[in-house]
UniProtKB/TrEMBL annotation:
GO terms for biological process: negative regulation of DNA-templated transcription. Keywords: DNA-binding, Transcription, Transcription regulation. The lineage of its organism: Bacteria, Bacillati, Bacillota, Clostridia, Lachnospirales. Residues 64-227 form the IclR-ED domain. This is IclR family transcriptional regulator. GO terms for molecular function: DNA binding; DNA-binding transcription factor activity. It comes from the Bacteria.
Length: 228
């Protein structure tokens, strides 16, 4: 692939992640020649993909890039068919519900619904994080034919997750937090995404009903995507 194209995409991703960032910092992060980075920034600015901040030093994501992102969100079947189910689940259980796309050993969060009074900090839309030691990692290992054993799951646990279409992490451990995840399929029976819940454990609480509701949410989204 063309080197300039790859560099342009990388620079856009960095600007998006930082909100606003200077030419000097972009050069430092990428390691690319200053003249190359400047030329890319100039071209992006002319196309309104980025804008020059009021201090004339930093750059931010422009309206054209934002419009492209909005267009993707509007037209994405996964996003449009997930929101109502996620919102209903978040209000029902009083916890944050996130929608993610698995990419290797990472997950990109593309949608999020929170209750009126969230009690725990959760990832933001656009965050891409390693999925090791999460319910998402278990889903990835079982449903994506992953080459590596991310979680070192036993054969019995893999079979259980595959049968129940449900995974959890932290409910049986000593830590204060837990998460639950369930796979979403499309009409081609392909894994489209993962819906998950993040919460703080409470002593003496039976989470079986919450586990069931997360799976039902994923099932409803899958049905809307044409999965039978």
């Amino acid at each position: 692939m063309n080197r300039t194209v790859l560099r342009t995409v990388e620079i856009l991703e960095i600007i998006s992640k930082h909100g606003e960032i200077s030419l000097a910092d972009l050069v430092k992060i990428t390691g690319y020649p200053k003249t190359s980075v400047y030329d890319i920034l100039h071209a992006l600015e002319e196309r309104a993909m980025i804008y020059r901040c009021t201090d004339k030093v930093c750059y931010g994501i422009g309206f054209r890039a934002y419009a492209i992102g909005r267009s993707y969100s509007k037209n994405s079947d996964l996003l449009s068919n997930s929101y109502q189910c996620m919102k209903a689940l978040a209000e029902d259980i009083g916890k944050a519900v996130l929608l993610g796309k698995i990419d290797g050993e990472k997950i990109l969060y593309i949608a999020k619904c929170e209750p009126k009074h969230p009690v725990v900090m959760t990832p933001s839309i656009g965050d891409e994080e390693p999925i090791k030691n999460t319910a998402f990692a278990k889903i990835a290992e079982v449903f994506t034919h992953h080459e590596k054993k991310i979680c070192q799951l036993s054969k019995e646990e893999k079979n259980r997750i595959r049968t129940e279409k449900l995974a959890s992490y932290g409910l049986d451990g000593p830590g204060p937090f837990y998460n639950i995840a369930s796979p979403i399929y499309n009409f081609e029976t392909r894994l489209s995404g993962v819906v998950g819940v993040f919460g703080v454990k409470e002593v003496g609480v039976d989470y079986s009903e919450e586990l069931k509701k997360v799976r039902e949410c994923a099932g409803k989204i899958s049905e809307r995507l044409g999965f039978i």
